[in-house]
Amino acid sequence: MSIDEILEEMDELLDKASSVPFAAHKKVIDGERMRELINDVRLNMPHELKEAKKIEFDCQRILNEAKLNAESIIRKAEERAAQIVSREAIVTEAKKRAMDMLTKAQTAAKNLQKNAVDSVSKMLNDTEAHYARNLQNIKAVKGKITGSVDISGNGFGGNNTNINIK
Question: Do the bridges between strand 18-20 and strand 23-28 make them parallel or antiparallel, or are there none, so unpaired?
Answer without folding.
Answer: antiparallel
